[in-house]
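Practice problem. Given the sequence and the SMILES for magnesium ion, write out the predicted structure.
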Amino acid sequence: MKTLAVANHKGGVGKTATARALGDALAGAGLRVLLVDTDHQGSLTLSCGVREPAKSLANVYAVAGHPPATLAEVAQPVAKNLDLAPASLALAAADAEIVARPGREFILADALEAVATRYDVAIVDCPPALGQLVINALVAADAVLIPAQPQPVDVAGVRLFLETVARIRANRRLNPGLSVLGILLTFWDKRLNTHKAAWKAMQANGWPVLPMRVPRTVRVAEAAAVGQSVLTYDPQNPAADAYRELAKVVLKWLRENGTR
Ligand SMILES: Nc1ncnc2c1ncn2[C@@H]1O[C@H](COP(=O)(O)OP(=O)(O)O)[C@@H](O)[C@H]1O
Ligand SMILES: [Mg+2]
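Answer key:
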């Protein structure tokens, strides 16, 4: 099993929509996929049609009085080949509670290792933060995918996030093997010069900006509201095209790294 974190400390950049769409695309390609929702807001959980799960990542992290549970106990089926380890509001307590625990950076990595034979890939949707849960995801991940909006202010945000990734990688006890799968531009509007400028600025910095861009479309939010990704909700939509292209990049990465 390989683990891909979908992360950016900024909110509203399409992390969750991307994780949901990748889950569908990779499960559709025949891989056994585990989606992991580590954001207490639970947007990924809702967009999988799951409400008020009995067990959640709050059990995996054993926070807010939740009895410890394994990812295998917490995961529930969403579709063929696609399981979800849901989030719950109780996860909001995790940052404060786990900060004093020995080995706090490795809780998710250890939990994922225990289900490594059950899945081909785990996709970890991160909260918009730079706290313990995001560090856990980056420590557990083989690669990170960074969705970002193509706005000039977001260029600075991506720089900050790449620095965080570099710090995790620079610490040999944390995750020296962490790679950046790429920066995925979302909410793309080809008519906007500001978007083109931000895209060019990221490329000029030498950052690994992915070639496909996910256009802004109300269909993505509509899909989430009915527990779907845009791939099944509106397969002809250009955003679905972009996510299928992204899935090809992830499949290539998985092949090159020994999963399928
Ligand atoms: N390409 C897109 N076009 C339009 N709306 C989008 C797009 N991607 C995501 N959204 C919507 O924007 C909001 C934020 O997206 P989300 O994926 O939840 O971002 P994040 O997880 O980074 O906070 C959600 O309501 C989502 O449905
Ligand atoms: Mg989100």
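Check your answer against the key. The first helix runs from residue 15 to 28.
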